[in-house]
Every structure is written in structure tokens, then in C-alpha cells.
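User: C-alpha cells for this one?
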Amino acid sequence: MDHSTDILCERQGAAGLVTLNRPRALNALNLGMVEEMTRALEAWAKDPTVTRVVVTGAGEKAFCAGGDIRHLTDLGREGRKAEALSFWREEYRLNALIKDYPKPYVSLIDGIVMGGGVGVSLHGSHRVAGERYLFAMPEVGIGFFPDVGATYALPRLPGETGMYIALTGERIRRADAVLLGLVTHAVDSGRMGEVRETLIAGTPVEEALAAASADPGPAPLAAHRELIDSCFSAESVPAILRRLDEAAGKGSDYAGSLAATIRTKSPTSLSIAYEQVRRGRSLDFVEAMRTEFRIVSRIIDGHDFYEGVRATLVDKDGAPHWRPATLGDLDPATVEGYFGTLGADELEIA
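Assistant:
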């Protein structure tokens, strides 16, 4: 299959322009896209005629809905795990390149941004949200874990909102994204094209974005911040659930809804995600990416990732059978094993 048009990397005016170009697949990333984007970014970093990078997603539904998870699980099932891991290895290296990119890196996000899409936007210097912006890290619901730099980024969000995002997979819309710092600017969808052209024309980045910025309106999450910080600061996932249950018992429908949501997720994934956010507070970005590669190298040998993808994306029955089925059945030593070093197989980031 020809993937040569899955991503378009071209110089236009003052900009290195990246277009994620798989609209029918919600611009999901594959290995070829990751490799081509890496090559372009490395070249533009050294090109004095490129003064900023602009990243967009084709179509109106999604900036990028993640990695091509179905393909990756197919590789795992077929015993081609090394091929699957080569995707994550290169993806995580790309995330690190973006995090330390020497020029303004502007993502124009007007639609779904999840998983791998977060990895190619959140770590850049400027994240611009249109009205259709919809962010989530829903990985614990498919037996996976919040990766692409979430180990570093989520603990650095205000209060316990990073832990809340990791364990619930709740969707975050534009006003809340501004509140949390997930985006740097809000722009009306109708002006996204204008912003892109202004950036290509060479207008200073801050000036171009400030001129088009809009008021995103009130942030619904602000009303729940106290509850989130109180409940999600507990010492374990079961303890978080206990606090949410207590709040629900005192009349908080929101707490009851969050607890019910968490209980549908993979117990193994929840425990990994909790530990990621806890450990990530003290890790630099490169070490966070190494940690994630250690986890994914074990996840691909497990059960829940394949079962979660089956239930969500293949059979779509919404009824995954997790192993173990409950948090109480999970051995803490099992979770610890996901974080162990890989020796010669460690992720190397130049």
C-alpha cells in the first residue's frame, strides 16, 4: 500500500508546513508518517529560511486521533512485536525532538486530538485550539496507557488534573484546555486558515496568534477542580475510588459518574497510569520517554491491550474481559515489572 501521501511536509514561505493527511482514518499516525515528519523537522531545524513549523490535520473531524492502534495490535497478534515496537521507538524519539525543537512549533488543532496526536502537538511551543477541539488520553479504556510524553506532561498540569485525565480518559474541550494549559491560544474555527496563511507569510508567531485569539468562554472544569484535587491526590487507585464514592455518597453526581467511568477501565492500565503520573513528577522528558518505552515493551506481551482494542475497535461490543478483572486481584509486583529497565533494548534518544 502506498503511504506516500499520508503526510505532507513542505516549505511554504517562512514555514515548514506539516499536514497529517489521512482524514478518513482521522489522521492516525503510522510509522512512515513518523519517519517522514522526523526527517522534515531535522532538516528545517538547520534551515535558516524556515523560521517556524506549522502542523495541521486534513479534514474537519480530527487533528490526529492517535496511532494506528488496530495495525499495531495486528502486528502483535501475528508475533511481529519487533515491528510494532519500532513504531513506538520512532514515535517517542519524534516526541522528544518536538519537545526540544529550536524554533516555534505551532499546532493548529480544530478537531479530535488524542494519543499520538497529543504527542505531535502538546510538546511544541504553541498549541492553537479551534472550536471543534476535543482532547483525550483514553488509553486505559483499551488496556493501554497514556504515552507519547504523558508521563512528563500530565503531572505538570494544575493540581491533580493530570491524574484525573489519565485515569478517566475524560474528554476536554477548548475552554477547559485553556484553563489547564493544554493549549496556548484559542482561535475561532473560521479563522484557522487565516492564521495558517499569516504564519506562512512570516508574521512573528506571537503577533499572528494574538491577533486572531478568541475568548474560549467559561471552563466547565473549573467548578470541579476542588473535588478533583481532593479525590485524585489519594495514595492509590482504590483510594481514589473510595474518595469519589464518599463524595458521591454526600450528593456529588459528578464524583459518582467519575467513579463509574474508572471502574470500566483495565485495572492493570489504571495502576500503570497512576504510577506513571506519580513517578513522572520527578522525571525529565527523556527519562519519561524511556519509561514509556519500557512499559509498552511489556504491554505488547500482555492480554488487556489486545482485549481492549477488540472490544472497542474490532467487535465494538464495549464489553472487555480484563485480566485481572479487578484492582484487588492485581499484584503490585506485576505493576512494578512494567517499569523495569530493558538493558540493551532501552530507548536511545540522541
